[in-house]
Design brief:
Number of helices: 9
Radius of gyration: 17 Å
Order of helices and strands: EHEHEHHEHHEHEHH
Strand order of the largest sheet: 3-2-1-4-5-6
Shape: globular
Distance between the termini: 60 Å
Strand content: 15-25%
Helix content: 25-40%
Structural class: alpha/beta
Length: 208
């Protein structure tokens, strides 16, 4: 019998989550199920590198909305390290920390097709691909992601199995930008966010 510790599969789902919505939750569940993850960690960014010109809702509101949204799901967790670290949130820094903290875990990082196209502009993209298995969202109704963008940085032994990096996801027309706009104008956001998150936004006038 091997003395090797069992390796846990941990999913990393980063983003601004301003606010978290049902599309995020559906995606996280597909991520967990398709890659057989023990846990999906939602990691809200302090300041996303590609959104330097945009201001986000206060971190305490974004954290509380995530807590409300994932409550009751034992496979989902919130990780506040990037908010506590402050400044611009770089994925490679977060993955390095997690690799040290979870030495017996295999890390899986969720990335959208739009982010994949910009991967070459990220900080240390090759290191990201070495630290974690990168799962790319293939949304229904949209052109398939160009996995050759990933091949540039992928370890050589994984390039042949690039198709395994695709995460199938139904097309969901919900965006945080639209939810913020609707909340500001007093329009309904029901069924776009969990009911508890809708109530929180209204009661705390998060986007007024």
């Amino acid at each position: 019998m091997s003395d090797e510790p069992l390796r846990q599969r941990v999913g990393i789902f980063g983003g601004t989550f301003d606010p978290i919505h049902l599309g995020h939750l559906m995606l996280a569940e597909q991520f967990r199920e398709q890659l057989q993850l023990a846990e999906v960690r939602f990691i809200p960014a302090a300041k996303a590198p590609h959104k330097q010109d945009q201001s986000a809702a206060d971190a305490k509101h974004r954290v509380e909305m995530i807590r409300l949204a994932i409550g009751g799901n034992s496979n989902f967790a919130i990780d506040e390290r990037e908010l506590k670290r402050g400044g611009t949130s770089y994925t490679v820094d977060t993955l390095r920390e997690l690799k040290i903290e979870l030495p017996t875990a295999d890390l899986f990082f969720l990335m959208g097709a739009d982010s994949l196209a910009e991967l070459h502009t990220w900080r240390e993209p090759q290191t990201i691909c070495q630290l974690a298995f990168v799962a790319i969202i293939a949304r229904g109704g949209q052109p398939p992601p160009d996995l050759q963008q990933l091949a540039r940085f992928q370890p050589a032994d994984q390039i042949e199995s690039l198709a395994n990096h695709l995460l199938q996801m139904p097309q969901v027309e919900i965006s945080s930008t639209d939810i913020r706009r609707r909340a500001v104008s007093g329009q309904s956001i029901r069924y776009m966010v969990p009911a508890a998150v809708e109530t929180y936004i209204r009661h705390n006038t998060v986007y007024s």
